[in-house]
Structure formats: structure tokens, C-alpha cells
Amino acid sequence: MASKYMQLAKEIVKNFGNKGNFAGVAGAGNCRAIHAEEGNIRVEFEVEKDQTNHFETLHGGCTATLIDNYTTAALLLTKQARPGVSVDLHVTYLSAAKIGETLVLDSTVTKQGRTLAFTKAELYRKRDNVMIATGVHTKAFPAMKKSE
């Protein structure tokens, strides 16, 4: 069963890596899926220059976008497979990450219902497990209006 989720995770990562949109600008293009199961995806990537701020550390907006993208990816790896729309995204920044450092982002669905889902993410440095950021992301599944 895990291979089914890993194949889907690789497709999701590939689609997020499209350099023609903001996800590409935020650096999803160099992410690699390293683990996937129902409601969980783990990716790793190296911090690149275009992902950094003027201090040459991972930009907070890039961090938030990666957490947004990959908590959504975790939702796509559920039976419902719905991305939803963001209601709330809270990111806590704990440490800096420099260009060239390999980071791991682990995203998990903590609870999913009919109208809301709750997810969480941890971003940490691979070499020493120092936590870079954490995030919680609430997604809604609004009722689809019937077209007239």
C-alpha cells in the first residue's frame, strides 16, 4: 500500500515543481519525496539562493509556502484526496537555514472531517535534526455550487 502513496507523492512533488508558478518560485522544484503513506508526506530539498532572504537564509515566505503546499499534499494522500482551501496557516520560525543545507519537511493530516481538515508540518535540518519551523494549517471543503 505504501508504494501507491509514494507514486502519488512523486507526482504531486513534480506538479508543485512547475517553475511557471509561485510554487516553483518558492523552491518546490528541488523537493524530493522520501516517504509517503496515507495522510503523510515527507520531502527533502537543499536551500537554494532563490529561496533566501537578504541574509542568505531560507525566506519566511518560502517556508510558509512550502508548509502550505505540502500539508495540502498530505490531504491529497487521503481517501478523500481533496486539497481544500486555506482557512488558517500558522508558522512558527525557530531557526535559520543557510544556502546548501538539506532540509526535511514532514507534513501530516491530524484530523479530517466533512467540511474541515487540520494538518501540521515540521521543517528540520537533515544533518542534525534542528527544527527550522513548524506549521499548522486548517483547510475547508466548501460545498460546490451547482452550475445553472
From TrEMBL:
State how it assembles: Homotetramer. Interacts with PCTP.
Q: Which residues form a coiled coil?
A: none
Signal peptide span: none
Keyword vocabulary terms for this entry: Acetylation, Cytoplasm, Cytoskeleton, Hydrolase, Lipid metabolism, Mitochondrion, Nucleus
| Catalyzed reaction equations | a fatty acyl-CoA + H2O = a fatty acid + CoA + H(+); dodecanoyl-CoA + H2O = dodecanoate + CoA + H(+); decanoyl-CoA + H2O = decanoate + CoA + H(+); octanoyl-CoA + H2O = octanoate + CoA + H(+)
Species: Caenorhabditis nigoni
Report the protein name in the record: Acyl-coenzyme A thioesterase 13
Q: Any idea where the Thioesterase domain is? A: 56-130
Q: One GO CC term of this entry?
A: nucleus
Subcellular location(s) per record:
Cytoplasm, Cytoskeleton, Spindle; Cytoplasm, Cytosol; Mitochondrion; Nucleus
| GO BP terms | lipid metabolic process
Recorded GO terms, molecular function?
A: fatty acyl-CoA hydrolase activity
Main localization of the protein? cytoplasm
